[in-house]
Amino acid sequence: MMLIYFYFLTYQPGDENIIIDTSTVINTYNNCNFVTALSEVPEELLVNFYPNPASGKVIVDLPAGGVDDIRMVDMSGSLIWRKDKTTGDFELSLEGYKNGLYELLFLKEGVLSRKSLLIAQ
Predict the structure, then answer these.
(1) Would you give the DSSP letter of residue 53?
(2) Which residues of 66-94 are buried (b: 16+ CB within 10 A; e: fewer)?
């Protein structure tokens, strides 16, 4: 038995700029290519947030210079929350959001970084 899991999000501006390191692509079954790793996230997009899993609020630590766009999407790809042109650290209130797994998308100068956030109220 073979389990194959695919995860898709709807298109977001900047998706075409995701960097994939082709040196990690390997040929496998029936000449299908599988990506085994993504390239490193640039330092200007090193974003941290805590706690994770979270309830109530999340503290987001942004890199120097901030980011152009922050989005939170659910696992179906629906936009839940968005904030433009953000600098410095800030608190993101989670009140009213359902328990579950979400993706935080950070965009700066056309480069996209994704991080998962688990909400457990």
Answers:
(1) S
(2) bbbbbbbbbeeeeeeeeeeebeeeeebeb
Residue 47 has a CB neighbour count (10 Å cut-off) of 18
Q: How far, in Å, are 10, 42, 46, 48 from residue 61 at the CA level?
A: 26, 15, 9, 5
Extract the tokens encoding 98. Answer: 């359902």
Tell me the residue length of the chain. 121
Q: How far is CA 91 from the centre of its chain?
A: 17
How far apart are the C-alpha atoms of 88 and 65, rounded to whole Å?
Answer: 8
The string of pLDDT tens digits covering residues 7-62 is: 566 666 766 666 555 554 444 545 555 554 555 656 656 788 888 899 889 998 88
User: Distance between CA atoms of 73 and 79, rounded to whole angstroms?
Assistant: 5
Tokens at residue 97, please? 């959001």
Give the side-chain half-sphere CA count within 13 A for 103: 18
**Domain map of the chain by residue range?**
15-119
Top-level class of domain 15-119: mainly beta
